[in-house]
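Q: Got a minute? One more chain.
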Amino acid sequence: MNRTLVYYGTNVGFGGTNTTNGFWLGVDPDGTRNSQPSLGMVLTYDGRLMSYGHLDTTYSYYSGGSTNTIGPPLTDASWFTGF
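A: Always. Here it is, folded:
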């Protein structure tokens, strides 16, 4: 069976309403989160969806009571060829 798993932290949120606030999520093409590398993605507060390798700035997100950041330089999984 071939399936894709989309996952995110249940305690993660945008952390604000600026264009540099984002929500991280992962996409795993084989549904196992262990044999195939996952693709990291950021959904921004203003509605853009970008892979980690295509982030144009550093984004802030809220997780477990604190504000964290994610941003370049990051790379995408080797199997990802873009949108």
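A: The mean pLDDT is 88.
Q: Perfect, thanks.
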